[in-house]
Amino acid sequence: MTWPRWLHWLQRTPPAALDDLQRQRLQHWQALPDTDWQQNARHTRLLVVDVEASGLNLRRDMLISIGSVALQDGGIDPRQAFEVVLRQEQVSSSDNILIHGISGAQQREGMPPAEALLQFLEYSGKAPLVAYHAFFDQHMIATAMRRHLGLHYQPRWLDLAWLLPSLFASRQAHVVALDDWLTRFGIRNHRRHNAIADCLATAQLLQMALHRAEERGITTLKALAATERLRRHNNPV
Amino acid sequence: MHSAPNPTLVEATVSFLTQHSPFDGMEAAALQFLGESLQLAYYPQDSFLLTPDMGPPPFFFIVQRGKVLSREDGDIASHNLTLSAGECFPIGASSGSRATVCHYSALEDTFCYRLPAHLFAQLLTLSPVFNRFCASYLSTLLGQSRRDMQLQFSQRALEQQSLATPLRDLLKRAPVTASPEHSIEQVLAIMGEHNVGSVVMVDSHGQPQGIFTQSDLLKRVVLPKVDTRLPISQVMSTRPHTISRHASAYDAALALATHGVRHALVVDENQVLQGVVSERDLFAMQRIGLRQIRYAVETAADMTALHQVGRDLRQLTTNMLAQGVGAEQITQFVSALNDSITARIIELNLQQHDLYGIDWVWLAFGSEGREEQTFSTDQDNGLLYLCPEAYDKDQVQLRLLDFAADVNADLDRYGFPLCKGNIMASNPALCLTLEEWQERFRRWIASPDPKALLNAAIFFDLRPLYGKRHLANQLQKQLFAYSRPNSLFQRMLAANALSVAPPLGLLRDFVTEDHHGEGGWLDLKTCGSRLFVDVARVLALCYGMASSNTAQRLEQAAAHMDTPREEVRGLIDAFQFIQMLRLRHQHLEQELGRQGDNLIQPDKLNPLDRRILKEALRQARRLQQRLKLKYQL
């Protein structure tokens, strides 16, 4: 699913006006140094990200919330988490609300999107982002960044949907659902489709994956990314 | 970046915790605190979570999923422990901020919640429930050590039932009872009919009012020619000694020995009679009976006979150690029997000394005064008397000194060595009238110089042993009248009690000393039990507590100071554990023919005892800190 570059430009809506302070904050983020991907993954702050959207249509659907849980020094700390609901002009369908549980009122009373996204940038810095089926999260966030901040957002992601089967022998050749992995490792998700609860479960998978990777001599972020790429290449969807 | 804790993550943690004890009973605020503070970490199979060389544990762990193996140094498989979801560790090391004794490793892939070390103390203050949970952990350890010790001594133990058996399990048949209104004749008929040696008189609620035994028959009925139609209440022993059915056989034995009675009435919570335990029942459990020893003591015609009794006494205490009877009970027991031996020695000497017309009381000081004697204790005693008006005081004192010198010498021959510091009744400075004693106590308290404080440590733990006991009580009352309002004295005494710190090392487990030409020794008396004893004394003098016994003092002080029960229990357990180590050590030394001292090498203790000793010394530190706080030292 790759749009020709010029199509993006056609799609682009001019960013909502940012005030001076917001512009400064954005610049500050842009000036942050990039993470060195040669460094040891276990000693890097990794952010597990999960988004909820008004649907699964990449083009039409809107980003409703971002949830993120940090893995730092081997631990998941409740004080190092991020959760925001973006204010929606149009509330998502009731079927959709039933999935993520973010009510119409909550959507209307959410944070102005530009501010929400800025806060996410400040929370995440240039830390590597991790998700299960990262493509969707990646796309929804990038689209919102472009629309509301005018930012060409291209952080590097690690995708557990590819990494896990590569690290843990999997009988299925195809990519399975997150829930299958959670069941396999006995990880309980106490509130499925809550962005944070999903992140918490995914972060536990990440902890296991990092240890397993290390056992195989895969220690750097770069090596992890290469492992992921290899799997993706050998098992095209 | 540190921000407010995420409510969903907090909720996930809390909902896990509430499925497991002790967290399920925890206060909401404490749970919230845990939810906000716990980090979730992953440990793959065979990886180590915590080892002794990490020093004070960086985290307190709660297993979320998986299994953790706790293995002790020394590889004793029996001490290995598997911890699964909801269990937490290391309780001892975290509460003491000291390195753990165990190696903790993941038996399988494991997730654990981790509480950063600096928040552990906060949790303890925030949650009384969790605090209690941790406190009871220590006592469990103590129980385990006691079982281990039983094993150690079991080869030497005789084929006996344990003295720890609750009385309710020893009662074999319903008691034979009668009403106090029954005539003597009727009661004798009942005795004949049931073929029993004793009948208990109970009221309409079943509560015992008196007891009548076969031996009473001769002395109280036949010889005085009492009319047998009279009600039994006229000849029965009233206020018989009762004991709870939950008490142990040991408690009953001690009660029989100290009160010199042959039957104890076992009652339930409502004082309703459940049965009778006679000394015969209890002696069936002991090759050497308590009463036998006591009887032998009381009737010993001379010192040779008493000497034999002493050997039996040692044998009996060995058996008690072997049966896992606690230090508290053994020391009390040793004291009770030593008391009766001393009393007998005094009685034997009174046959040669005429003290008629003089009111006097034999006082015990120091460990004897506190009823905390171990196997090797030298004499600490004194005499208090009232000088009759018509008498010449010097003459009276000389007569008492003569008498005391003989008693001291006999006690020495019996096995209580003469006191090196001459704290003995035969010392003219310690054979004083009530007024002289009071004046002396007043002086020590009014000007507490180092010498006075040293004296306080010996003489203020006083207890009457023989003679007019009320004189000792008068002296004690006056002592409190001086000590209670004098906060300067209390402060000085407190500072003195704090002058020795518990021998706990920062790097090593224990701070040890050189003795016998090598290092690694620890003095269980000066650096162990004395820490508790000294603090308890300060509290006794501050609150005017009549008891001279350390455990009782601590318990009574707790009421004044609002100390939680669990904490006091922990303190007393710790003190008793150290006493137990002393007894065991001295006993083994004596078996090897050496004079028992108080020096042990902690490295040679088994790992569990070493660990508990450490816990016990930390309790001492806690106690000292309380005192420090109280007197702002």
Q: Which properties best describe this structure?
A:
heterodimer, A: 237 residues, Nucleotidyltransferase, domain 5, 5-stranded mixed β-sheet, 10 helices, 46% helix, 15% strand, B: 633 residues, alpha+beta, Jelly Rolls, CBS-domain, Beta Polymerase, domain 2, 4 domains, 22 helices
Order of helices and strands of chain A: HHEEEHHHEHEHHHH
List how many beta strands of chain A DSSP finds: 5
Taken from the alpha-carbon principal axes, the silhouette of chain A is: globular
The CATH level-2 architecture of the largest domain in chain B is identified as 2-Layer Sandwich
The biggest sheet of chain A, with number of strands, parallel, antiparallel or mixed sense and barrel status, is:
5 strands, mixed
Q: Count structural domains of chain B.
A: 4
Structural class estimated from helices and strands of chain B: alpha+beta
Please tell me the total number of domains of chain A: 1
Task: Give a short account of the largest sheet of chain B.
Answer: 4 strands, antiparallel
Distance between the termini of chain B: 41 Å
Unreliable parts of chain B: 152-161, 285-289
Largest interface, with counts of residues having CB < 8 Å to the other chain, equals: A-B, 30 and 27 residues
Provide a count of the helices of chain A. Answer: 10
CATH topology of the largest domain in chain B: Beta Polymerase, domain 2
Relative helix content of chain B: 40-55%
Uncertain residue segments of chain A: none
